[in-house]
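Translate sequence into structure tokens.
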Amino acid sequence: MRTQFLISEVWTGLRRNLTMTIAVVISVAMSLALAGAALLLRDQVNAMQGYWAARVEVSVYFCTKDDSLDSKSGSCASGPATQAQKAAVQASLMQSGLTEKIYPETPEQEISSYKQEDANSPDVSFASTDSFNGDLQIKLKDPQQYLAASELVSGQPGVGHAEDDSQVLKPLFRLLDGAQVLALSVMLIMLAVTTLLIANTVRISAFSRKRETGIKRLVGASNYSVQLPFIAEAAFAGVVGAVLASAMLALVKSLMIDQFLAPSVDVITFIGWGPVFQAMPLMLVLGVGMSGLAAFVTLRKYLRI
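Result follows.
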């Protein structure tokens, strides 16, 4: 089939079904934008998990006077931790080979940090050495070994409890994982709706050109030459939709992330432009492939032309 004739047929089909074509383009663009957003959200979550996993620290809190008065606090029943017990815990950590550095905090430093972090809490005025007895902030050689470090000190004399930063981060990562699942679900629904819309558009376009199709058959045109213009129209809509989706992702990255979120949110390391540029050709392939395949299956299975 001559290229000029194919382009003419594609243009005629797009012009005849202009409103349907616009609807298809918008649906493809939204579906692909959601697909790209899901890919970028996955990269962002992975980047955040890697960033924070490398910074996980373990905190060891020693028994206080208040702990020893609590009947439920069995590990602290013998009273507040002594200096000898604190030194023994620190020595065991250093000998374990798990730690890179240990930062001891005195009760006074603990109280000062508590007052700064929870300045609005009504309990700040009651902070005293009865509730604080110093702690150890531990930086690990391998942040993934935080469970081993916690288990090492748990149960030792004078140790009230041990915490690691991963417990604070887990709810955030669960929320982000849920957002990924939601974005993926919406994307799949939009792709299904878009596929159905493409199929209906191709059917309408084929029926509107039934006479032209019959003439082609009479002069001996092959199935390929008859179906190609319809597939090309759907693929064109996929290309335009992919371009629009790429532009939407670029705008979100530039305006929302780079200019708004990144300067004001210091605790999150946002992804760069690399994942955005990697997602663009994937969206183009997905848009063209989805549109062309939907048109091909519709023509082969549901229409007799």
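Note: The mean pLDDT is 80.
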